[in-house]
Specification:
- The complex is a heterodimer.
- By secondary structure, chain A is of the alpha/beta class.
- Chain A folds into two domains: 122 residues, Rossmann fold (3-Layer(aba) Sandwich); 107 residues, Rossmann fold (3-Layer(aba) Sandwich).
- Helices cover 51% and strands 11% of the residues of chain A.
- Chain A has 13 helices and eight strands.
- A four-stranded parallel beta sheet of chain A has the order 2-1-3-4, with helices on both faces. In chain A, strands 6-5-7-8 form a four-stranded parallel beta sheet, with helices on both faces.
- In chain A, strand 7, helix 12 and strand 8 form a beta-alpha-beta unit.
- In chain A, helix 11 crosses helix 12.
- The longest helix of chain A has 20 residues.
- The radius of gyration of chain A is 18 Å and the shape is globular.
- Chain A starts with a strand and ends in an 8-residue tail after the last helix.
- The relative contact order of chain A is 0.15.
- In chain B, 49% of the residues lie in helices and 12% in strands.
- Chain B is globular, with a radius of gyration of 26 Å.
- In chain B, the strands form three sheets. Chain B has a six-stranded parallel beta sheet with strand order 1-10-7-4-2-3, sandwiched between helices. Chain B has a four-stranded mixed beta sheet with strand order 8-5-6-9, sandwiched between helices. In chain B, strands 11-12 form a two-stranded antiparallel ribbon.
- By secondary structure, chain B is of the alpha/beta class.
- Chain B has a domain of 52 residues.
- The N and C termini of chain B lie far apart (63 Å).
- Classes of the chains: A alpha/beta, B alpha/beta.
Chain lengths: 251, 503
Amino acid sequence: MRVALFLTCVNDTLYPDTGRAVVKLLTRLGVEVDFPMAQTCCGQAHYNTGYRHEAEPMARHFSDVFRGYEAIVTPSGSCAAMVRELYPRLGARARAEGRGNTLERMLAPVVPKTYELTEFLVDVLGVTDVGAYYPHRVTYHPTCHGLRSLGLGDRPRRLLRAVKGLELVELPGAEECCGFGGTFAVKNSDVSAAMGVDKVRNAESTGAQVLCAGDNSCLMHIGGTMTRLGTGMRPVHIARILASTEEEPAV
Amino acid sequence: MSATYLGMPGFPPPSHPAFPSFPQAAREAVRDETLRGNLRHATHTIRAKRAGAVAELADWAALREAGKQIKDHTLRHLDRYLEQVEEAVTAAGGTVHWAVDAQEANRIVAGLVRATGETEVVKVKSMATQEIGLNEALEAEGIRAYETDLAELIVQLGKDRPSHILVPAIHRNRGEIRDIFRSQMSAWGRPAPEGLTDAPAELAEAARLHLREKFLRARVGVSGANFVVAETGTLVVVESEGNGRMCLTLPETLISVVGIEKVVPTWRDLEVFLQTLPRSSTAERMNPYTSMWTGTADEDGPSTFHLVLLDNGRTDTLADEVGRQALRCIRCSACLNVCPVYERVGGHAYGSVYPGPIGAILSPQLRGTASEIDASLPYASSLCGACYEVCPVAIDIPEVLVHLRERVVQGGPVTRGGNRVVLQPAKGHAAERAAMRVARWALTHPGVLRGGQRLASRTRRFHPRSLPGPGRAWTGTRDLPAVPAEPFRDWWQRTHGDGEGSE
C-alpha cells in the first residue's frame, strides 16, 4: 500500500516530533510511508477565515501532490476534515459560480482516501493495540473537527486504552471546544482564552499528567494556556503516545 | 429605544451605529463573573436536559431531516404558500397585512391599535416584534405594550435587553430578579408583595398577580407565531406558561406579527415540529400550552384578527443559496445553549435580538454586513460545530458563518432590498487580505515554505516571548510554542534521502 504522510504545515514547522512519531508508528505496523516533499498546506485557515478563492490553489496543489497514493494519512482531525468535508464544497461552490466542474473533478480523487491517523489505524489497518507503552496518567480531549466533522467517535480512546501502562481518565466537558478555532484565537482572543482556561481547569481536575489530543494546533493553544497558568500538565499529540514503546519511550 | 442597558453598561442600543464589534463587546462580558456564573449554570443545565429529551426518540435523525425538508420545500415555494395563507386567513375572518420592513410593520400595528381607541396592549412573547422594536415604536405613539412572558417581563421591568431567544433573562439570577420586581413593579402596575424573597414560587406568584391585572383589563393583544399553517390559515403559538394563551383569547382584538418564513404547508407538517421544537428548546416532550387559532370565531376569543406578514430582510436572505438555510430556524435556541462562545459572552454582545450562533448568521443577513457589529458576527465562533449538531432543522451554521466571512472580506454579489448588488470587500481587512495572499503564495511553493521554516528554526533563539501588534492577541494569554531546531521535512530528507517524494 502506497501511503503518504500529509503532516500539515503546522506540524512540519512546529511539531516535527509528531511527524517522526507517525513515521515510527506506521513503520512499526508494517506500513511503508512516504513523505512527498512538495506538500504544503490544505488551505483550511484561508477557507475558514473567508478566503475561499485563496484556498483553491492550495487545494489543487494538495491534489497534485497526493492523488497518486492509495491512502493519505494525517495526524490532524481538522486538516483531514478540510479535505474530506470542505474540498467537495470548494468544488461545488466553484460550479455554482459558473466555473464548471474542473475543480470538483480535480479534488475528487483525494477526498475519500484521506484519513485522520486514528481512523487509518482502526478502520484501514484494523488495529487498536499498536504495541505502545506509555506509563502515564492521560486525559483525552476530542478536538471538534475530529469529533463532529469526521465522526471519529471512540477510536482514539480505544487506541489509548490498549496502550500498556497508560491510565486513561475522562475529561469533564470533553466535547466542548478548547477555544482555538484557527484565526478565532486572535480575532476573538478574550473568548478564546476564557475557553482555553476552562479546558485546562477541567483537565487539571482529572489529576492527569498529560492532556492528549489529535490536533497540534488545539494543543498549541491548550499548552500555551497551561504554561501561562503554571499547571504541571503537558499537552501531547496522540501519535507520540502511540509511537512510544518500552524500548524507546516517549516522555 | 431605551438607553438603559443593565446587562452591558455603556453600550448604545444594537440599532445604533456605534454599537461595538463583537470582540469588543465580548471583552466586557467575559470579565463579568456574575454573568459568566449565571450563564454557565443555565446553559449547562438545559444542555444536559435537551440531550436527554432528544435521546428518548429513536427517530430523532429522521425527524430532523423531515423538518429540514419541510422548511426547504416551503421556502422554495414561499410565494405560493404565502398567497394561500392570505386567502385562508381572509376566508376565516382575519385581515392580512404585508410589511416589507420594520418601519412598515410598526406603522401598521400602531395604526391598528389606534383604531381600537386603546392605549395599552398585552403581548405574547414574540421574536418578530422584538426584531422590529415594536414596543418602542408603540411607545412613541403613546401606546404602552406590556410583556407577559415571565422572562420578558423581567427584562422589561429591568429596562434591560433580552439575551436569549427562549429565556430572555437568562443573564439574571434569582436575587437580581427579586430586586427588579421590588423596585420596578409598582411603576408598571400592581407592586410586588411586601417582603418578597428570591424563592422561585414567590417570584412566580408576584408575576402572576401583577400580570393577571393586565390580562383582565387588556382589549388588544399582540403576538407572533411559531407556525402558520397555509392550508387553513391557522396560527400556532407554543409556550410554557399559559400567559400567551391569556393574551390570545381574552382581548377583543388580536394582532399577530409573523415572519414570512414561519409558514408550513399543512397540519401534518406540525407533527414534526411539535416534537422537535419543545425537546430542543425546553427539553420537554411536549410544551404545556399549544394555542391554535384560525381567523375569528363567533362568541369565542378575539372578534377582530389581523395578521401582519413581515419580510424585513427575509426575501433577500432567501436569495442567497448558502445563507438561506438560516430561514429554516424555528427559534428553539438549542444552538445558544450548546455554544461555548455564547456561554462565555451571553447574548448582549451579539447586538441583536437573535444572539448566539443562529444570531451570528441571521443578523448579518437580515440587516446586511455594513455595521461593525454585523461585520464581526460571522467571526463570533470557533467553528466547533456543536450548534449544527443540535439544530433540529439541520442548519449548517458553521458553513453559513464561513460563507458570511467570505462576504465580509471578499465582497461579492448579494441581494439587498430586492436588488442584486455587488458588495465591496469590507474595510479594515486589507492587511489580513494581503497576508493571506502572501501565505497562499508561499504555501503553493514548497521551496518558499521550506525557506521560511529554516529561517524560523535558525533564528529561534532570538524569537521574542511576546509578540507585538496583532500577535499580542495570542501572547497576552498564551505562551508561544518553541520553534524546533529543524522542520520535519529537513529531518525526513536527512534520514530518508531523496526518494520519490522529493520536490
